[in-house]
Design brief:
Blueprint lengths: L8 E7 L9 H17 L3 E8 L2 E7 L6 H19 L13 E5 L4 H9 L1 H4 L5 H11 L12
Antiparallel strand pairs: 1-3, 1-4, 2-3
Helix pairs in contact: 1-2
GO biological process, one term: DNA transposition
InterPro entries: Transposase_17, Transposase_17_sf
Pfam families: Y1_Tnp
Length: about 150
């Protein structure tokens, strides 16, 4: 073949360090827009970025020219710097070191989009920890719970 064709959809899930409730409503959308800009600048397709005070979901169409790990590293590094430059939190803002990356088929885009869009409503009933454990179980990912959260 003379060209590369792909269809890769990844949902990243990661938390504020210590799962602290630092992503406050007055400026949270600005962070999500900034993250979408990071994704676009890397030549990738942001589908939706949303979350609540202690964690976010980033759903992207990923081209194989960029690794899953490199994109999440760039999102975390650049968005942390942006949040700190805005002085939106006391002290230093940072994301938890790890993350979840979950793959989806094209036929699942709308349902994942709706799931990410409705994070506030979803988390009225379920904690982030319970949600994340559900993801790991659903995707049959082996884990040791002592290494999940800091």
């Amino acid at each position: 073949m003379t060209a590369t064709f792909s269809q890769i959809y990844i949902q990243y899930v990661f938390a504020v360090k210590g799962r602290r409730n630092l992503l406050q409503k007055p400026w949270r959308d600005e962070v999500f827009k900034y993250i979408s800009g990071i994704i676009k600048a890397k030549g990738q397709k942001p589908i939706i970025v949303n979350g609540v005070a202690d964690h976010i979901h980033v759903f992207v169409g990923l081209k194989p020219s960029l690794s899953i790990a490199d994109l999440v590293r760039d999102i975390k590094n650049n968005s942390s710097k942006f949040i700190n430059e805005q002085n939106w939190v006391q002290g230093k803002f940072s994301w938890q070191e790890g993350y979840g990356a979950f793959s989806y088929a094209h036929s699942q885009i709308e349902s994942v989009y709706q799931y990410v869009l409705n994070q506030e409503e979803h988390h009225r009933k379920k904690t982030f920890k319970d949600e994340y454990l559900d993801f790991l179980q659903k995707f049959e990912i082996e884990y040791d719970e002592k290494y999940l959260f800091d």
